[in-house]
Amino acid sequence: MEVTDIVKKAARTFETPFLIIDLDIIEENYRKLAAAIPDCKIFYAIKANSHPRILERLRDLGSNFDVASIGEIKKLMNLGVTADRMIFANPIKREKDIAEAYDLGVYLFAADSTMELDKIAENAPGSQVVIRVAVENTHSDWPLSRKFGVDLLVAVDLIAYAQKLRLTPVGVSFHVGSQNYDPHSWSNAIERVAKIFYWAERNFGIHLRVLDIGGGIPIKHVKPIPTVEEIGEIVLQSISEHLYGVRNLQIFAEPGRSMVGNSGILVSKVLLRCQRGSEEWVYIDAGVFHGLMETIENFRYEIEVDGKESEQKIPFVLAGPTCDSVDKIYDDALLSYNITLDDIVYFINAGAYTVEYGTNFNGIPSPKVYFLQDLL
């Protein structure tokens, strides 16, 4: 999303910090992915941004939803989304949540351990399960596979175990890591997990039919990115090469950041500029506890200072407003040399994981959300 005159007017009108979102960009992202991978069943990972207006727009487009908790399930159902449009994809679930989801009509679950399968069998008998496989995350900003996923042989054992528990193993899932810049990460993953389909059929007579390619499609920040179309072409080519013998194959995708990230701008304001030793510091009214949690691991946003875009930039330590020393955004933010009190600071393409991570720490409220469509 670009800093337009409408965004600048909002920045001078509304109290900061706030997130401004363009719903039409979200719709465009959905349609692009659907066109890039035809017949793909899209499950939006609502943890990226679960604002009701976003969920309603995607609901009306026909999206399905990746949920991680009973709270997310109920939120969707309150918006008229039926349970058959959800996958409970978090492989670490409370037993009571599994049971309640099952009672509400959710019959599709993810797992990556025998204990999780035991919990599903006990609390959601007969349900369908997808086994999550660990794949290479090297080319991503946020590697995920140390926490989630199993290797190929363990995955096959889990598929057989699921069937023994009278669950219905339907496929496998993987995630190449959030913000993955190499389209071949998907082809490498598909080539790897394809073996599971053939091993399960040959060794246990289990026909798998779901390939869940997860998320990881990048949005533009400070590095060049492949297009959705390029990724889609590689996914389809890899499937035709490595899964051509699988009958009635269904492709799932679980986009989160790539669906909403470039739809939003986080608008903040300078509270203080000062010098500490040899370092120049700038403090703003957003921070790691109020919209910018991902920067703790150096997730890099493109930053603009309103009216000073063409000024020379120098490095600053950029920090948030709270009295916690953890609340430091970047050690080396390149900002306009003359940035000062009350300057407006824009974090570009910040529609994902900003308001979801927000807290009320220090009694400071999370950023509010406004929609471009209401300001036109």
Automatic annotation (TrEMBL):
Q: Does the keyword Glycoprotein apply?
A: no
GO MF assignments: ornithine decarboxylase activity
Biological processes per GO annotation? putrescine biosynthetic process from arginine, via ornithine
Catalytic-site annotation from UniProt? C323
* Record-listed N6-(pyridoxal phosphate)lysine modification sites: K47
Listed under catalytic activity are: L-ornithine + H(+) = putrescine + CO2
Instruction: Give start-end of the signal peptide.
Output: none
Q: Name one GO cellular component term.
A: cytoplasm
**EC number(s) stated in the UniProt entry for this protein:** 4.1.1.17
Pathway, according to UniProt?
Amine and polyamine biosynthesis; putrescine biosynthesis via L-ornithine pathway; putrescine from L-ornithine: step 1/1
The Orn/DAP/Arg decarboxylase 2 N-terminal domain covers: 25-260
- Which InterPro entries would you find in this protein's record? Ala_racemase/Decarboxylase_C, De-COase2_CS, De-COase2_N, De-COase2_pyr-phos_BS, Orn/DAP/Arg_de-COase, Orn_de-COase, PLP-binding_barrel
Its required cofactor(s), as named, are: pyridoxal 5'-phosphate
Provide the alphabetized UniProt keywords. Lyase, Pyridoxal phosphate
Q: Which PANTHER family match?
A: ARGININE/DIAMINOPIMELATE/ORNITHINE DECARBOXYLASE, ORNITHINE DECARBOXYLASE 1-RELATED
User: What family is reported?
Assistant: Belongs to the Orn/Lys/Arg decarboxylase class-II family.
Q: What is this protein called?
A: ornithine decarboxylase
Q: Which organism is it from?
A: Pseudothermotoga lettingae (strain ATCC BAA-301 / DSM 14385 / NBRC 107922 / TMO)
Q: What high-level taxonomic lineage is stated for the organism?
A: Bacteria, Thermotogati, Thermotogota, Thermotogae, Thermotogales
